[in-house]
Write a structure and sequence with these properties.
The structure is a single chain. The protein is mainly β. It has a single domain (19-104, 118-140), classed as Beta Barrel (OB fold (Dihydrolipoamide Acetyltransferase, E2P)). The protein contains four helices and ten strands; from the N terminus they run αβββββαβββαββα. It has a five-stranded mixed sheet with strand order 8-1-2-10-9. The chain has a five-stranded mixed sheet with strand order 3-6-7-5-4. A hairpin with a 2-residue loop joins β9 (118-124) and β10. The longest helix is centred in the C-terminal third of the chain and has 7 residues, at 134-140. The chain is globular and about 40 Å long. The chain starts with 7 loop residues before the first helix and ends in a 5-residue tail after the last helix.
């Protein structure tokens, strides 16, 4: 039996850059970050920090960081990237496959610090998801020593 030969172009193709991203909402807006930074998810917690595997995670209300009105967080997503924090989010939507290289750029109207931690916009069937760079977000929020 002879196996079919692979096309030369197919053999040279790089692996897909699509990566799993955790999708959550803040103020009704969907956000996502690379799932490689997620450590654990908890129901909403009160206080200044939570502990996971005997490590402290300072709590950060992402609504405040994203300029949304105050409310009750539903979940805490523990993240690590040059620092660690428990991101207090409204809702978890799940995991989405996102190609970071195919993100739409942030419109020019955004001129503040958010340009540093927003990687771009990911179009979806029902709107747009804002993709966040976790390390830069944690630095902006003061969660990195």
């Amino acid at each position: 039996m002879t196996l079919p030969r692979r096309d030369a172009a197919e053999a040279r193709r790089a692996p897909s850059p699509v990566r799993p991203h955790v999708v959550f909402t803040s103020g009704g807006v969907p956000f996502a970050f690379d799932a490689a930074h997620a450590r654990h998810v908890l129901r909403a917690a009160a206080g200044d920090e939570v502990r996971f595997l005997d490590q402290p995670y300072p709590l950060v209300d992402v609504r405040r960081a994203f300029g949304h009105p105050a409310g009750d967080a539903g979940f805490v997503v523990l993240v690590e990237s040059r620092g660690r924090a428990g991101l207090q989010v409204d809702e978890l939507r799940g995991i989405a496959a996102i190609d970071p290289g195919a993100l739409a750029p942030l419109p020019a109207v955004y001129r503040g610090t958010e340009r540093r931690w927003i990687a771009g916009l990911h179009p979806t069937d029902d709107g747009v998801t804002v993709v966040v760079r976790v390390a830069e977000l944690l630095e902006t929020l003061g969660a990195v020593p």
